Amino acid sequence: MNILMIGAGNVAWHLATALEQKGNHISVVYSRHLDNAQLLAQQLNNALATNHTNFSEVGADLAIVAVKDDAIAPLVAQMQLPPQTIIAHTSGNTPLQVFEHLNGNNDFGVFYPLQTFSKNSPVDFTAIPFCIEGINANTETILFDLASQLSPNIHSINSFERKVLHVAAVIACNFTNHLFAQSAHILQREDISFDLLKPLIQETIQKALNNDPRETQTGPAVRNDTKVIQDHLQYLKNNPSANALYTSLTDSILQWYT
Q1: pLDDT of 36-86, one tens digit each?
Q2: Domains of the chain, CATH where assigned
Q3: Conformation bin of residue 219: beta by default, left when phi > 0, alpha when psi is -120 to 50
Q4: Model's pTM, two decimal places?
Q5: Which parts of the sequence belong to the Pyrroline-5-carboxylate reductase catalytic N-terminal domain (predicted)?
């Protein structure tokens, strides 16, 4: 399949290389910053780099839009595609209907890999769920077939279900990582190594993966140990951000378990 990759960020970087390894051809990489498009194109086999949105002469079977959410609609309104090209975005939050303002009658869909991506972190696509949605059955089948080259874990998910998944994913992934960063910062201020927490973090995640997380909650809040909680808040009094997080999460746990 000939693919036009619209975007050159983390998701585009991993998807483009993985799809090409499966025998697809990434013909063009687009980014509004040409140097970013060139960086990704250099990792691929004879891909062209561009910062122009007129793709009407590009012989692509599929255009994958892998840009930040608030850039999708403006980009869709600007771009021009050949009539036979299917277009799909990779967003967890943006609905399928964003393509209704596309210039042309192209079929469209969603090709959402439910994973966190960083350019320098290897990704095992065989473990990643793909959430697929299409404007019609034929489009959905084509996207399913493409996803099946990368992963056996493929699901037909509508825009509402995908939004719910994305909300849960942000809490489970992005918020959790921020809490790790907050913990590391607290330790760093006292010249204590974050490495001391890593076995605890690994055990916590492993228990959550192997059990119902509601059944594995531990700590002072679930025990309603008010003395420990107050001691911790006293220590955090000069760290308003961490103090607010500690208070909010403690209140949430208390509401769930008392």
Answers
A1: 999 999 999 999 999 999 999 998 999 999 999 999 999 999 999 999 999
A2: 2-157 (3.40.50.720), 163-257 (1.10.1040.20)
A3: left
A4: 0.91
A5: 3-87
